[in-house]
Amino acid sequence: MQQGNAVWQLEVLWSRGSAEFMRKHRMRSQAMKKTVAVRAKVMDPHCSLKEVYHENLKQHRESDQQRTREYKKELQDMKARVTVRPYLFEQVSQKNAKADAERLYRDKLREAGLNEQFVKTKGEEFETTPIFKSDDDDDCDDRSVESDMEKRNGNIDVWEKIEEVEEESVKTRVEKNV
């Protein structure tokens, strides 16, 4: 009874992972074939040990050269990433400028009596709903338009600060690369 149960469990495991089992089996078989071929070549009486030694030496040199090429490629990739990335002080100044802009945004929302979540949901609704202009929209108050423009101008100042910091970081990077 136990033997039948064990066979059944093996069949279940094999059926679940048959693809994985076959892939691993194929990889093991290929490795085994390669090992057998190398050992048969070493044991071949037609080849001298000197030839086998030179062949192995050649294979090791090729693998070393391949590893060296891969290492140089990785090193070049790292250098490219480092040169593109802004300096640490530039990252900090950009982060501070972003934090200042976000703080100013929250303050302006608070002054207007709005909360951030409300603006976010309304913005998402605005993106999903089509805009249709009605005849009633022509009666818009000019004073409200002017106050909206003033509020927007306050936000533009913050974005100008962020752009100035980014321009300075680009200038310093260009100056240091030259």
UniProtKB/TrEMBL annotation:
| Entry annotated with the keyword Coiled coil | yes
Q: Name one GO biological process term.
A: cilium organization
Instruction: Give the UniProt keywords, A-Z.
Output: Coiled coil
Which segments cross the bilayer?
Answer: none
- Top-rank lineage group of the source organism: Eukaryota
> Where are the annotated segments for Disordered?
125-148
**Would you tell me the Gene Ontology cellular component terms?**
cilium; cytoskeleton
Q: Which residues form a coiled coil?
A: 54-81
Q: Can you name this protein?
A: Uncharacterized protein
